[in-house]
User: Fold these one by one.
Assistant:
Number 1:
Amino acid sequence: MIKQGHTLRATSRSDHSQLCQDLGISYLRDAIAFLEADNDVILICTSILSLPEVLKSMPLHGLKRQTLFADVLSVKEYPRDLLLKVLPEESDILCTHPMFGPESAKDGWKDLAFVYDKVRVKDEATCSSFLRIFENEGCRMLQMSCEEHDKMAARSQFLTHTIGRVLSEMEIKSTPISTKGFESLVQLKEGTVKDSFDLFSGLFLCNRFAKEELKNLEISFEKVKLKLLDMMNVRQDINDSNL
Ligand SMILES: NC(=O)c1ccc[n+]([C@@H]2O[C@H](COP(=O)([O-])OP(=O)(O)OC[C@H]3O[C@@H](n4cnc5c(N)ncnc54)[C@H](OP(=O)(O)O)[C@@H]3O)[C@@H](O)[C@H]2O)c1
């Protein structure tokens, strides 16, 4: 964003001033000073589970102008509903999910998916210029409803993270005879456990479609297990009849 000529200010509960200084971002410890600054866009990047607490701690009465609120949470109906509830009518709301993070985007954002839903946008110019930041970096821009996103993400991202966490519980590691398939499982495990447990639990607790997918996973696991046990019984029968 800085490379594209934008001015950035940040605030958080912890002190990130050194990192911000290194990146050329002004860091404001005081949320009031942050909200009173002349921000076109306020981009919310907190953990999914802390969003209600973070919004509650923001003195929204301090807003001095019409502002676009955007978020990057990995679930979308949940922040949409909260933002519609707490933000003043005159604030615009853009719900987004960059489908990438520090690992997958370390070499740039080109061809990576960027999902967005214009939940309440009156100031089209500001919204378009915010979206252009991602377009300019070559992201695949996907406009879809928060509901569509959550349905799809429960069946893809939540599933990926759940399987990664299961593999981590199993403590899988590369072996000298690893196949490429197994190596991709090891990579999946390593990639998912790098994300915080807050993020993973948010994917489950704050996406109404995730419970069904967890159930589907359990049912499918049982089906595969039954197929194997059936085969075991068939072989036992063959062995018995050969005796
Ligand atoms: N990681 C990814 O690949 C990725 C990709 C797309 C979207 N996202 C979304 O981006 C957001 C941030 O993700 P993340 O990977 O940085 O990890 P995260 O664990 O989901 O979030 C960490 C952030 O949440 C803040 N936070 C946590 N608990 C808080 C609380 N009780 N009160 C106030 N702030 C709190 C932290 O602030 P402090 O640093 O001040 O403690 C930090 O900024 C999430 O909503 C996630 O779903 C992540």
Number 2:
Amino acid sequence: MKTILVLIACAFCGFVIANRRIDWSYTFQQVTSIAVSDEIGGETQGKGEKRSGRKSRSHTEDAKAEQNVWSIYTMGEYDAANVDAAQRTIHRVFTFGTRVKGHHRLPPVCVRASNDLDGDQCLNELRKDDEQCIFITNQMIYTEELSVRGLTKLNGNVILLKNNPRFDKVLIHEMGHVLGLRHCENLACVMAIHNDAEGTEKFCEQCIRMVPEGALRNRTASTLPASEVQASSNDVELDDLN
Ligand SMILES: [Zn+2]
Ligand SMILES: [Zn+2]
């Protein structure tokens, strides 16, 4: 299959938009929609075996349930505070669960000179068929010779995150890619390529329409424009990260 590199962009995250065929077993989009169907008691997908309530969960169901939980690992040199931050951000913005899995061995093939990480090698080496994983590190992550703060693949199930001042925003951005979103031209949108000075943690209305139903904890609070959002006193002011 011919691979066409459409864009290499995003100084923000280094996400590579590539017109590649995704061959991973489960995409997040599929799994999320199944979970939502079960939750609201609506149409089930597949054979409806769960609705009978008589059978124990099948291996397939167990695997799908696992896909709504993100495993969080540290890797190489790391800051433990980022683990808490990742959990908080996911629980605050998304409906997914998290599971802290501890420290992961850094595959030697992923390490470049000066202890930097080859992000693309990491994504390949760290990928697990039955687990969605976030790997957090303090070490520099490179892709295509670009230093990046986060890296994942469209509809992927591995996210690399480097400790950085906008850790939460990068995580939401990478989650957007995992959920099937590409970069956005709206500079205020969390999916913007250069979402730094201008950007928020929120998805623009165009992007949010592409987020799978049920993935966001509060769709309204996650959507631009910010003027429509009622920020509670306990919330971080999302528009004031700079
Ligand atoms: Zn990106
Ligand atoms: Zn957008």
Number 3:
Amino acid sequence: MCAAIALSVRLRNRELTKRPPRDDGSPGTLSSPWQALRVAAVIAIAMLAYRALHIERGYWIALTAAIVLRPQFAATFSLAMARIGGTVAGCLLAWGLAAVIPSTMFANAVAAAVFGGLGFVFWGVGPALFALAITGFVVFVLSLTGLPEGAAIVARLEATVLGAILALASYGLGACAGTLGPGALHLLNGLYEAKREGGAVVAITGALPFNERGVEYFQSVGLQHVFGDVCAYQALLGSPAQVPRLPQIALQTALARRQPVRIEIPADIAAKEVPSARFSHPLVTEASTLIPPDSIVREAAEAINRGKRVTIFCGVGCRNARDAVLTLAQRIGAPIVHTARAKDVFDDDRPQVVGMTGLIGIPSGYRAVRDCDVLVMLGTNFPYDAFIPSGISIVQVDSNVENIGIRAAASIGVHGDVGATLAKLVPQLEERTPGPWLAGLQRMRDRWLDLARAQSDPASSAVPIHPPVVARAISERASDDAIFAPDGGSATVWMVRYMRMHANRRMLGSFNHGSIGVGFGMAMGASAADPKRQVWDLTGDGAFGMSPQDLITAKRFGWPVKVVVLNNRQYAFVKMEMEVAGLPLDPAATDVVNMDFVRYADACGVDAVRVERVEELGPALDRAVATDGPFLLDVVVTPALLTMPPRVTLDEAAGFALSKVREGLLGFEGDHAQFENWAEELRANLV
Ligand SMILES: Cc1ncc(C[n+]2csc(CCOP(=O)(O)OP(=O)(O)O)c2C)c(N)n1
């Protein structure tokens, strides 16, 4: 079983304690209710100080708690979770509580009441309950393992929750835990998600006891091989003496490379005491700025100055350099194109921003990249190289040198942070007034926006409802700093095309791994990490069908995620891919049979409503917004609206035509589903 982990971590440049660190291995738990109360009081004072002084959330509490409790196991999670917005409350409460759990039930009860009460007073009922739930678990783990020190913060979500770690990880450091064998395997898809999206995640798994290895013991899986591809580092603990060194390396690797790592703790090791905290050292958590050399910046400036049609192509690496990119675009009168992932950095409410390229892009974004003579790629690892032309000059700026040149032949590769590079580059660029290049693209973008407005018109009377209408209705009702987690499939298309991301909105998604069924997990993770923000999961019915069991998790922890299921009874995206490849409709492959989502939500104690007509949509969304807990909308939408790419190749058009001919032939042979599909497609796309 994955259990508690006691690590020695001290914050950089800060002394955790005035006392000499204890290195005698003596038990660290406090052994009387009075001691528990004393520690609780100190933490309460720390919290009050935090409230009064507005010190960065959680750090102060973590430090104080660490000083008072056990310096040598200032739990990793306290440090890590302190960076994770709101959940820090629950985590610290749980950690503090776990650390003071003495052996008597009375003390447990007192400590639980004190911490739960404090959590309630300071952060509301959610974190307090969370802390109490965790406490129970920690007590249980401690009683099983007999661990004298340390605490486990384990959020056990019921199933495909691993997307959640991504959301957590994108805020700081995420953690997940699985048992050995099958329990550990559950973590895999989520860890790949984190790897592809740049999430720092620590996976803690159990391991077979040493004396049972090599004998095909119960739940035996070669975890080291299985996780070898996804984890940047694996700390396989074979002896307590490897603690804290190996777990510290694991954590540092995760933070520095923003990748998943794994710590494996066999049960027979977990119960032993750590003999020494000799290697305990502060982790480096502050990032450095990468400034490129003058010579390469000069070359880049010369290439851009020579360009007649320059386009700036931005990825998520521009998140911290948004204003610098806008300044660059204004100075040289160039259009900004962005990836889907960077939509929440550059939405098209700025004159210079002409939209996205790629399969789910729009014509102006697509043409801006296709027709330029100098492409300035900033912080993007956009994978669809077919959309990047060859034979042009490409300046690529990336803080990860391995990204340079892998998607297109970069003429000039600049290894640097986008912000630091632009600070040097922009003054070297000739000022230009925007010309016909930008104006033409802006007209194209405006025509597309007009079309999008018409397609998502709230006055639409189409039945079943068209998904763009749903996307726009959510966009207009969601708060200005809402977080959106579109799931894979066509939900991503509707969201990135028809919703507006104001500067404060965030979007999380499986943009690189392309998994379905993770949107809800990400939304829950975001809600846990940032409880004050509104969180929406926009998902297809097929995708939601992969993770509905987590509704009960959202209910349990009170995460107020608004789940909007676009119920089209199909794997519509797959059907479209098949049609483009020339294959006819195959209901056995692409039809989805759904449960009654509203009754299911009801069984989980989650409020839900079914929406079949546009006029029901607004009131249902208003209810979702007004509800404190999780809420589900089961919106019946048409599966037939085509998600047209910004350009259709001859092959794709021919494939689609061939598919329609085959469908016609099957229809004449008596397969009525084919003609019904035709009728639905005509209704949705022509009317
Ligand atoms: C875990 C996983 N399984 C399968 C796929 C393949 N896949 C991609 S889109 C899709 C269909 C999604 O259907 P649904 O959620 O109903 O959305 P729709 O496209 O119908 O709007 C599937 C099965 C995937 N990407 N990830």
